[in-house]
Amino acid sequence: MCECTGSTTTKQVKQGEARQTFYPFGKTSVAPSSSDAQLQYTHTHTFIVTYEASGSEESVNAALETEEKPKAKKSRCFTCRKKLGLTGFQCRCGNAFCSMHRYSDTHNCTFDYRANAAEKLREENPIVVAEKIQKI
């Protein structure tokens, strides 16, 4: 092999790491004879051709789709659109706010705190009524 320097592809070819997928008759699972499996070029670089036995294009596409991860949405203050990072505050109205707008009176909160507190008191404190007729 020659000692020429070049790109990472050239280095991979020298080390025998370059692999290519070759489908001789479309995408089939038929393996060709051993004479077709290795191609040699005149520059003394050897390219090894590998064949996949799966033959299923759907499984390859499904594997590619699972590797892609959607980017997480950057959270911003609902009022001033400032980037929050780790300092964001979640309000009971369901929105995220910065330190300036985290209180309900600064961002015109739509959550009804009074009704929520009244409901909580009703659940925790049942009504106690004395019996109308006393037992003897």
TrEMBL record:
Limits of the AN1-type domain: 71-117
Organism: Scophthalmus maximus (Turbot)
Name of a matching Pfam family: zf-AN1
Lineage of the species this protein comes from: Eukaryota, Metazoa, Chordata, Craniata, Vertebrata
GO molecular function: zinc ion binding
The protein's name: AN1-type domain-containing protein
Signal peptide: none
Gene3D superfamilies named among the record's database cross-references: AN1-like Zinc finger
SUPFAM superfamilies per UniProt: AN1-like Zinc finger (SSF118310)
Keywords: Metal-binding, Zinc, Zinc-finger
Superkingdom, taxonomy of origin: Eukaryota
InterPro entries: AN1-like_Znf (IPR035896), AN1_A20_ZnFinger (IPR050652), Znf_AN1 (IPR000058)
PANTHER family xref list: AN1-TYPE DOMAIN-CONTAINING PROTEIN-RELATED (PTHR10634:SF149), AN1-TYPE ZINC FINGER PROTEIN (PTHR10634)
